[in-house]
Amino acid sequence: LFAAHVHFAFYDCIDGGWNHGRQGGLTGDGCRYRIMPSTSFTRPGFSHLFTAPAPPERGRNDTARLGFYLCRVLEDRIDVHLIRTCGETEETLRPGFQRLLTPVPHGSGNHKTIGGTSSSGALVGGDQGAATMPADATTPNALSGSRQGLPRGVGVPAAWERLLGVSLAHPLAPVAEVPVAYPSVIRQPVRNDYPLLSCLELGVGQVRAPGSDLRGGDQRRRLQLLRREGVRLQIGELWTDATSLCRQIDDHSGEVDRWEIQIPGSSRPSEECLAWLAGESRPAVSLCAVVPGETVTGKQHPRTRIGYRVEELPELDALLVSHGAQVDSVLCRLDSSPGSLTSVLELRRRPQLDAVHRVDFLFQLPGQDDAGNVAAAAEALLAAALVKGSKLFVEPFLDLDRTLDIGHGMLDTLCNPRPVFHLLRTLNALLSRGIPRFDFDVVEETLDGFRVLRLGAEEVFVALLFPSSEGAPLPRNLVDSVGGSGAFRLCELCDGTVSTVLRGDDLDAVRIHGPAFLQSVVQH
Hints:
Strand content: 25-35%
Helix content: 10-25%
Oligomer: single chain
Largest sheet: 8 strands, parallel, barrel
Number of strands: 27
Strand order of the largest sheet: 7-10-11-12-13-15-16-17
């Protein structure tokens, strides 16, 4: 159901069957309810909801929110895509480029079929849609080949096993009171649904949130709405004892897809924790180290490290094996130094893991330089794609100010997307699709001022391009080195646009404005 108009976007579910009891959750099909913002932009009063000044021109020039919704009516659901225009018109778009329509999450319980019956299957479906673009189904996801250094039993990912996740440092749905609201003598409580709506637009497959979010009614329900849309929920709890954890798990049965057990002060679980992990009756679990006192270059005081280092995983795996314990996943940091790709390649050189079924990755955007964040995030997501089944949790989702730790997020303080948001949205769609037979190695080279990461495959050529300057021409040496038809599809990741490039084209006229994804066209 779409309704209008206000000067703010809202999202809810009508008759969602919310149970406020001990095992609260959303039941039934319900009806998704979207309140649409006016095309006259954000009303200034609502800026009180954000930790930021009013938008430009007191909200009248908030062009980042301009766009339209595209509803794709499928056999068993309706997918809703936000197409941002940012005030562009047909005259201002670059000729020869098409927009990439990226998939949105969907679960089996959140949509009704056209006939009105509920769709079947589990809460979170395995097939999460596909990127709609002038491209074939050979877009890469992960690399096959040797699995040395990777968990045993890692299977081929589902047709749409989404790589991207986010870590929620801020609440998913902040609530504030807007002063002097209608009828001008009250404070009106207003909920900010832009982070939730942005998760759907981004196409995330999973979110991490602290356990405290389940103990508050507002955040608990919003998380369940997100989960009902097909986004897996990973809830973190610091380990204290088995009794407390089991009580928490029991209180929120059916609301969480994976519990993240955070080991305080050490990378080694305690004996009691190991005994609990070895038990037969427990939910899906991920382990995460929380180690204080880490020295960080450029910081005056030590910091707390969240997540394992690559070199700590073999010792953890051996400890789990010796206690007869297994875990569904562990969280490993991909720090900007020595680089995400270097860390993943180091993981693959190490011995196989026996008690860890999957390695997921945590990645923090490096700072306030949007261009640097874009490049680092592209490398991190590509690196995560090299490990089958792995997920990449990116943080911060919103701009974060912790005095000496100030960083830009995927959204700014007005909850408008930064360039890294669109890069992750686009690259997640391209890397999360089913793949052909890829070689194991990634070839890194420099061509005409571009940093190039090649992914070799039997049927398709794929490369991630990082230009040294904005507007650099596509390297002809790269195009000429690829056999086949000589036709390529070029995706500008921050713009979310796709164009066709032929070997005989004037490549000097093909300008790359940021990280780009180049894929050969397979002729059948």
